[in-house]
């Protein structure tokens, strides 16, 4: 019995020694017991895995020995920001709402973790898709018809529809126009007969009707910039510019160059657009208006071009 007791006691001391060695190895491990967790995720730097800085902060010093021993500092309040967890050593500059000709005011101030948001001053609006306005333009005034929906800073004023013209007045206008046209046509035919043959008139003056799209490639848009800009208006001109992949900065600069004067802004934007399109400008404009179902404006522009063509026929060099 004594021999058996000594046998089991030897096994007990052997197991105790092994346990002591294992415990000592774990205690000597410098990484044992550490639970390093990065709340906002990690990034790699010089082969090391480092913790990302939280929103509103930037990296002051990258980590070296462990993911958590890097240093982050806050962005400068009111001047710079970071909206997402990041590994950047700089913050982004806050947007300014104080441009002298942009008609802006601060809607939400810039914080270390959020950019500023700009809105329009009273009496101005913008239709920006970015959530923050870059430049605002004057709201329309409905002096003759009255306001249907007021301008609210993100959409323009909607005016009441103008009073319709009576049926008798319309009939009188139509008859008068037809009489004037008949007199003009008669006088034109007599004059043309004295200067050139009817065949020449048909071949030159009605070439536009049979070869419309081909002819438009030969039309120079420059003499018609002001008239076409007036027909289009600023909103449709911006639509055409964006469909043609023009930069928002180019569009905004046209507004800033002519504060509170949308007509001049439209002319300048149309001119820049036409310089890109070249001799195909008029044709491209007609096709884009047709595709966007702006039939009325398309027809008015075509009529403008046709009238100038007829004037060339009536006044040959």
Secondary structure elements and their pairing?
Layout: H1 2-28, E1 42-45, E2 48-51, E3 57-61, E4 71-74, E5 80-81, E6 92-93, E7 104-108, E8 117-120, E9 124-125, E10 137-138, E11 147-149, E12 158-159, H2 167-195, H3 198-205, H4 207-210, H5 212-216, H6 225-243, H7 248-257, H8 262-277, H9 281-291, H10 295-314
Helix pairs in contact: 6-8, 6-10, 7-8, 9-10
Could you please describe the fold and organization of this structure?
- This protein has 317 residues and is of the alpha+beta class.
- It folds into three domains: 42-93, Tumor Necrosis Factor Receptor, subunit A, domain 2; 95-161, Ribbon (Tumor Necrosis Factor Receptor, subunit A, domain 2); 191-314, Death Domain, Fas (Orthogonal Bundle).
- It is 47% helix and 12% strand.
- The chain has ten helices and twelve strands.
- The chain has helices at residues 2-28, 167-195, 198-205, 207-210, 212-216, 225-243, 248-257, 262-277, 281-291, 295-314; strands at 42-45, 48-51, 57-61, 71-74, 80-81, 92-93, 104-108, 117-120, 124-125, 137-138, 147-149, 158-159.
- It has a two-stranded antiparallel sheet.
- The radius of gyration is 38 Å and the shape is elongated.
- Mean pLDDT is 78; it is low at 24-35 and 197-210.
CATH H level, superfamily name of the largest domain: Death Domain, Fas
Helix-strand string:
HEEEEEEEEEEEEHHHHHHHHH
Could you give the distance between the termini? 138 Å
The averaged pLDDT comes out at 78
Q: How is the main sheet built?
A: 2 strands, antiparallel
CATH topology tier name of the largest domain: Death Domain, Fas
Strand order in the sheet with the most strands = 1-2
β content, as a range? 5-15%
CATH class of the largest domain: Mainly Alpha
Q: What CATH architecture label of the largest domain applies?
A: Orthogonal Bundle
Helix content: 40-55%
